[in-house]
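Possible regression after last week's pipeline update?

I re-ran a chain I had predicted before the update to compare outputs. Posting the input and the new output here so someone can diff against the archived version. Not blocking, just want to make sure nothing changed silently.
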Amino acid sequence: MSLPQRRWLHHSPPDWVGDSTYFVTLCCQTRGTNQLCTTVVAEKLLTAVRCYHEQLRWHVSLWLLMPDHLHTLVACPRDGDLAKTLAAWKRFTARDAGDV
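New output (post-update):
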């Protein structure tokens, strides 16, 4: 069995990023169980991350998925609001994940 090939990622931040990169940790409401690192959930979360990244709603430098929380280095456009962007992303993923 061959290992999956890593996709090339654009590592240079866009001009609008500036100096506003944030380290963010998001935790599941119930801690101590593997809620995020299942194949189905992880794929949905990472697809949503990529979607927001490609739409330039944020610039993600790092996304680390753990069983019951995640860490990210993320920047928003200069006129963007990080809290609103994260809240919208969480609503988007909650709708997409459904009963998973």
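Follow-up from reviewer: compared with the archived run. The CA atoms of residues 50 and 60 lie 9 Å apart. Marking as no regression found.
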